[in-house]
Each structure stands twice: as structure tokens, then as C-alpha cells.
Write a structure and sequence with these properties.
two-stranded antiparallel sheet, 10 strands, alpha+beta, 262 residues
């Protein structure tokens, strides 16, 4: 007996844009994969509801999990991205909390293979140009292509990290209650100058008490061309022009483009 199960998986794909001048910028797109079919074991070994067969996945002879990294320990993060967080802590603490939550809560992987390149039109660039795929961004994890990563200097690595963090911030609105609650509790941590406290610990416990199950609905993670442009704009403003930022204007901009509700 056959049973068909249809799983819709949304993949957030990030492209690094390479111009003639050598500048690189990242964008992302959400796509849908083809339906996945499962089949019961006709010999009686499978359950009546079907069997999903799977196991450890290898990349270049190693388990995918072996390529996981702590992004906060990367030199480019410490040198180029952490200073942004320090500024946000005082100027825009709500964004600082979301920013740091994505750094800590997402699983980051440095994968030693090239990634499939996307059509620039589909990622909101709006004109034909050869691109390289730097990263794939899923709702709860991020893959970075090591071959590209190694070609970037620390400035561009920091730029890429910042883009991925801000993509995660944009997506927080689409997550279920637990994820949003944990991100909000991080504001206590930020307010306390990145130090643990009883208040922060209690806030996290309350999140887990109220929202028992962590749940991601992939179909909700879809962005428009304007979303891509807004993410690129915010990344550039914070990474390259943070010393020129008018913080009230930035908060007004968040509301006007519905980037994130605070």
C-alpha cells in the first residue's frame, strides 16, 4: 500500500552579489521544494502510515553536523560585527536584543562545497548579473559556503554575517510564540550589559512555560522583492554607515516598511 505525504519545505537562499568592482552583497529568496513521497514496506516491516527513510548526511566524507561553527567565535564577528551590537545596545536596544538572539539561537554551518546560484531577478536585484551563492538561510539554521568564505576578507565576512543576522531579525515576526518570546526576553540581557541575571533567567523560563512546543511553519517564511531590498538597505546602513545613522529616523523606517514590530 502506498501513501503520499506532501511536505512543503521553504528554503531561504542567500546570494552574494559580485560586481565588476569586486563589491559583494547578500540577498535571499524563499523557494519550495518538490513534494516528497514515502512508501510503506510491503514486507510488513513498515508501519501502516508509511516510513520516512533517512539517516546521517555526509558532505565531503563528514557528517553535516561536523561543519557547525559558533559564529560569535569567528574573528570577523568579533572584529566587525560585535561593535555594531555594542552601538545598538544603547541606541536601539530592541534591535540589539533581536540581533544577539539570532547570533545565539541559530545554528551556523560552514559547508566546504559550492552552493547553487539563484536567478538575480528572483532575489530582488532587478538586473542580469553573474552572482555567487554565499549562504542558504533557513528559519532556524544558516549554511555558509566555505569556498566563498575563504575568498572574502574580514570586512566582507563581517558584511555577510550581518546580512544573515538581519535576515533572521526580519523573519522573527513569522516564527511562533516561543521564538518571539525568547527574543524579547533577550532585552533584559542587553539592558544588563550582556550579563546573566535572575530576571533574565525567569523570563526565559516563563517563555518555555507558556509556549511548550517549538514549532516552525515553513510556508510563512516568504519574502517580497521589497523585503530583500529593505534587508540590503539595513545591512549597509548598520555595517557601513552606522556612525551617520539617525536613530529616530531608523525606528520610524522600521515602522514604515514593517520590518519588525516593536
Amino acid at each position: 500500500m502506498k501513501k503520499y505525504r506532501f511536505l512543503v519545505l521553504s528554503l531561504s537562499l542567500t546570494a552574494v552579489l559580485t560586481s565588476c568592482g569586486g563589491k559583494k552583497e547578500t540577498t535571499q529568496e524563499v523557494i519550495k521544494t518538490p513534494e516528497t513521497k514515502t512508501e510503506t514496506n510491503s514486507s510488513g516491516g513498515g508501519s501502516a502510515g508509511g516510513v520516512d527513510l533517512g539517516g546521517g548526511n555526509l558532505v565531503n566524507g563528514k557528517l553535516v553536523e561536523d561543519y557547525r561553527i559558533m559564529i560569535s567565535e569567528e574573528p570577523a564577528y568579533k572584529e566587525k560585527v560585535l561593535p555594531i551590537l555594542e552601538v545598538l545596545k544603547n541606541k536601539f536596544p530592541e534591535l540589539a536584543a533581536d540581533f544577539y538572539h539570532i547570533v545565539e539561537a541559530r545554528k551556523w554551518y560552514l559547508i566546504p562545497v559550492p552552493l547553487k546560484t539563484l536567478d538575480p531577478f528572483k532575489i530582488g536585484i532587478g538586473f542580469e548579473i553573474e552572482t555567487q551563492q554565499a549562504a542558504y538561510h533557513f528559519p532556524d539554521l544558516i549554511y555558509i559556503s566555505k569556498p566563498i568564505w575563504k575568498t572574502l576578507d574580514s570586512f566582507q565576512q563581517g558584511f555577510l554575517i550581518t546580512h544573515e543576522i538581519l535576515m533572521g531579525v526580519k523573519w522573527l515576526e513569522h516564527h511562533e510564540g516561543l521564538e518571539r518570546c525568547l527574543a524579547q526576553s533577550k532585552r533584559i540581557f542587553i539592558k544588563n550589559d550582556f550579563k546573566e541575571s535572575t530576571e533574565y533567567s525567569d523570563a526565559k523560563k516563563e517563555c518555555y512555560r507558556v509556549y511548550v512546543t517549538y514549532f516552525v511553519n515553513p510556508a510563512k517564511f516568504k519574502l517580497s522583492g521589497n523585503d530583500y531590498n529593505n534587508i540590503r538597505t539595513l545591512t549597509s546602513n548598520l555595517y557601513k554607515f552606522i556612525d551617520k545613522t539617525n536613530w529616530q529616523d531608523l525606528q520610524d523606517w522600521f515602522r514604515s516598511v514593517k520590518f519588525r514590530e516593536y
